[in-house]
Design a protein that fits this description.
Blueprint: E1 4-8, E2 20-24, E3 33-36, E4 40-43, E5 50-52, E6 61-64, E7 76-77, E8 87-94, E9 97-104, E10 115-116
Parallel strand pairs: 7-10
Antiparallel strand pairs: 1-2, 3-9, 4-6, 5-6, 8-9
């Protein structure tokens, strides 16, 4: 059991109505790792499923989950959904390879939407 499920957003007041979101099927606690963010390693590009590395030597590169990502690509940006994000993109080197993990930063209850800060303001 992974602890999450991808669901269609059917609430018309939701900012991404008609798209998908990731929802908890178990309780998640602070510092739990939801999953590794998977996709294609590449230079940073404009993509709805792009997550950049925050590691020296890897800045300007990241993972694009458009074609080969897992369910974590359905984690939506928190703004207008919740007052604050409940998970975070965390870059780490493992076996000398850069990786991105989705780490819980605020308790998540069953049926809660899992949301993160996509740091859009960093690009303004």
């Amino acid at each position: 059991m992974k602890g999450y499920i991808v669901k269609d957003i059917t609430d018309i007041s939701h900012p991404v109505y008609g798209q998908k979101g990731l929802f908890a099927t178990k309780k998640w606690n602070i510092f739990d790792i939801i999953e590794e963010y998977n996709g294609d390693y590449c230079k940073f590009r404009n993509s709805d499923y792009m997550a950049g590395f925050n590691l020296e030597g890897y800045l300007g590169y990241g993972i694009d989950a458009t074609e080969n990502g897992n369910e974590t690509r359905y984690i939506n940006h928190y703004e207008n959904i919740k007052q604050k994000p409940n998970c975070k993109f965390v870059s780490a080197l493992m076996d000398s390879r850069p990786k991105i993990f989705m780490v819980v930063i605020d308790d998540i209850n069953i049926d809660d939407e899992i949301v993160s800060d996509y740091c859009y303001n960093n690009f303004l």
